Amino acid sequence: MEEPIKAEGLNPLAAAPVGRLLVQFAVPSVLSMLVDALYNVVDQIFIGQGVGYLGIAATTVTFPFVTILLSVATLLGIGGSVYTAMSMGAGRREEAEKTLGAVFTLSVVVGILFTVVCLAFLRPLALAFGATEGAGGSLPYVLDYAPIILLGAPFSIAAVALSSIARADGSPVLAMGCFLAGAILNLILDPIYLFVLGWGVKGAAIATVTSQVLSAGILLVYFLKKGRIRLRRKYLRPALPVCGQVVMFGLPACMIQIAAAILQIELNKAVVRFGAGAVSGEAALSAVGIVLRISTIVVSICVGIGVGIQPIIGFNQGAGLDHRVKETVRRALGAASAVSVLGWLGCVLFPARILGLFGVDSPAYLEFGVRCMRVFLLGMPVAGFQVVTAQYYLATGQAVKALLLSVLRPLLLMIPLIHMFSRVWGMDGILYASPTADYLTALVVAVLLWRDRRRAFGKC
Are the C-beta atoms of 42 and 211 separated by less than 8 Å? Predict the structure, then answer.
């Protein structure tokens, strides 16, 4: 079983202490995810301060488009990184470069196709995603914001997908740095476009796309000139067997995003339909959008931990070092669970202060937002447990279990709960559907891990 490791000359993924590797790979991954989540939150703060709640509602309606884009990027990036890590662990460098070429080409082609299709049907899609017509509706803002975001689709997909492969290539700091550079640029451009030039939500969209172009450009240069594996012209034409492996490993993670997009659409429509008493449907949608953005900060840290351990698990799985896989999983679960609990405490203890950052000043709006944050996020303490477990099953090639966990909370539990609870309790039912789905999912995850305890947590 040691032959592949010798071929790599004792690759650090197989020889270095697991704790050090977890810091080396998970911390940059966490920071890159966190930076992405934070600049999306700050983007919402600027929009809330410069445009108002209809601007935030418009970005909430646009969020399913973004999530679908992310699902494609995740399919290619996670699937490509897992297969790349396994290929490198087994000493098959050429296969890893074929994977890189296929991921890059598919990122560009799928991004262009997605842009064309969505722009052709933008208005009906926006209405289906929860936009409202009329003088006080969010549709005009959506039609200003969404087209620009869609034009950046190829760059967005490429940036996310290539960053995942950069981590598998042993460059987690670069994966973090490219998103950090994009985030800094976005934060510089946002206030200029919104407040100085007065471009409204269009300015926020332009700033976001510009940052994505920068991130994708940095990664492209890396893989052309400096990567351990290189982007080569002869591998730009995707090979069917490689694509099959990428899809197989990436589908569970992709389904998480697809399920999230469907959930977001159903949630948007339910919130607009029921409103919140003194708060209009559009204002309620804006408040829910803020709460979702805040929750993504905590979830992104957990996802960063899960994504960061994938190269470690994938390489050691390929090299037959099961004891290192087990130790990695145990440490990652502990770290992610601690983050989830601390994040939940922050949301519960300081909801009004958090909402105030987004320009929330109406007493009724603030009251609903505080209640929304405290109820909707009751299940946050178990988020890290769910995320890391799904990533463990993905990285070890247990695709069926990973796929189950990908769709369980959003599709099989939360959407039915939203419809059932809202019929009885209205808006309160929508809010309580989220923690109910969280804890039911955590129960299923616990049962799966208990059945697999010897494989996942057996003695090293």
Answer: no
Three-state secondary structure string covering 44-63 = HHHHHHHCCHHHHHHHHHHH
Taking the whole predicted model, whether its pTM rises above 0.90 is answered as: no
Residue 1 lies in a domain: no
The DSSP line for 303-342 is HHHHHHHHHHHHHHHHTT-HHHHHHHHHHHHHHHHHHHHH
Residue 260: CB atoms within 10 Å: 23
What confidence tens digit (pLDDT) does each residue in 311-365 have?
Answer: 788 777 777 777 788 888 888 999 999 999 999 999 999 998 888 888 766 788 8
Q: Is residue 151 part of a domain?
A: yes
Residue 173, in any domain of the structure: yes
More confident residue, 291 or 227: 291
113 pLDDT exceeds 90? Answer: yes
Q: What one-letter code names the amino acid at 172?
A: P
DSSP 197: S
CA distance 18 to 14: 9
Please check whether residue 6 lies inside any domain of the structure. no
DSSP conformation class of 195: I
Give the residue numbers spanning the domain of 116: 14-452
Q: H/E/C letters for each residue in 383-416?
A: HHHHHHHHHHHHHCCCHHHHHHHHHHHHHHHHHH
What would the 3-class secondary structure string for 2-28 be?
Answer: CHHHHHCCCCHHHHCCHHHHHHHHHHH
Q: Counting every residue, how long is the chain?
A: 460
Q: For the chain, give percent helix, strand, coil, nearest 5.
A: 85, 0, 15
Instruction: State the total domains in the chain.
Output: 1
**d(C-alpha 112, C-alpha 115), whole Å:** 5
CB atoms within 10 A of CB 93: 16
Sign of CA dihedral 52, 58, 61, 65: negative
- DSSP letter at 64 equals H
